[in-house]
Amino acid sequence: MKLVTDGYEFDFAHAVALYKFDEPDKSNAHYHGLSYCMKAVDVIAEFPNFQLWIEIKDYPQLRLEQIRKGEKGRSGKTIVREIQETLKLKFRDTFLYRYGEGCNKKIVYVCLTNFNNKECEDFCKQLKKEIPAGKKGPRWSSELVASEHCFVVDIHAWKRNFDSIFGTCKRIQ
Known about the structure:
Blueprint: E1 2-5, E2 8-11, E3 17-20, E4 43-46, E5 50-57, H1 61-69, H2 79-100, E6 106-113, H3 117-130, E7 150-153, H4 155-161, E8 168-171
Parallel strand pairs: 5-6, 6-7
Antiparallel strand pairs: 1-2, 2-8, 3-4, 4-5
């Protein structure tokens, strides 16, 4: 299955479904209708035993420089902190959407970005803490997502780590 969205082409031969989840078109079957109050990941790929959620965060060079300098965003928090909160909320709200749809497959959450390796590592560590990945509440029967199934990667890391597992992803423009 192939999908082109947000400047990327995904080709997942073993997926049973692949679609833009943050769908703005009301006539599309995957339109969820709650974007006025909830966030959503960009892409969902459904495989027989798990679901892959992909959030795409590609920033222009100027924004990357602001992020790296620790500049503040509109909220008064650093841009880094705003991005981390957005990634967390996209996961949580998508979890609620999928729960409401009756989907209970294991989740793999990948944030595809144009950060460098160190930034990807730092974002991933923070994201795992905030979701929380690999942890469950004292009364929960399972964790939201396994720690080893939560990633922040650039296109090169995708190719190295995921091409043979999920399928290919390439930048298009």
